[in-house]
Amino acid sequence: MQIYKRVSYLQVAEGWQTYVYPVKGGFIRYKLLTSPEALADAIAQCQKSGWIVNNATNLVRQLNAKT
Questions:
Q1: 13-22: per-residue pLDDT in tens?
Q2: Which residues, 6 or more positions from 53, have their beta carbon under 8 angstroms from its beta carbon?
Q3: How many structural domains is the chain composed of?
Q4: Cα separation, 27 vs 19, whole angstroms
Q5: What is the DSSP letter of 57?
Q6: What's the rounded Cα separation, in Å, for the pair 51 and 13?
Q7: Contact 10, 57 (CB under 8 A)
Q8: pLDDT (average), residues 52-67
Q9: Residue 39 is part of which domain span?
């Protein structure tokens, strides 16, 4: 059984791509959210369940700018 307690999202051209992180390490691409309402709902549900939610958009942009 895998346990997940962290999710991040990244703004892409089609919407927001979400990723979940198993406790044992790594990440799994999870779901593409296509509307701001869907993103807000997903964030609220994750936070209500005690998950850590992280917007990774700025970090990825900074990393891409350096490559």
A1: 999 999 999 8
A2: 6, 7, 8, 9, 43, 46, 47
A3: 1
A4: 6
A5: H
A6: 26
A7: yes
A8: 90
A9: 4-66
Residue 13 · residue 26 · CB < 8 Å = no
Q: What is the pLDDT of residue 44?
A: 98
Extract the tokens encoding 56: 């990774």
Comparing C-alpha atoms, which of 16, 10, 4 is closest to residue 50?
Answer: 4
Helix boundaries (H) for 1-67:
36-48, 57-66
Q: Is the pLDDT of residue 1 over 70?
A: no
Measuring CA to CA, how many Å separate 67 from each of 26, 60, 64? 22, 11, 5
pTM: 0.82
Mean pLDDT of the chain: 91
Distances (CA, A) of 45 to 17, 24, 66: 16, 23, 34
Percent of residues in the chain assigned helix, strand, coil, to nearest 5: 35, 40, 25
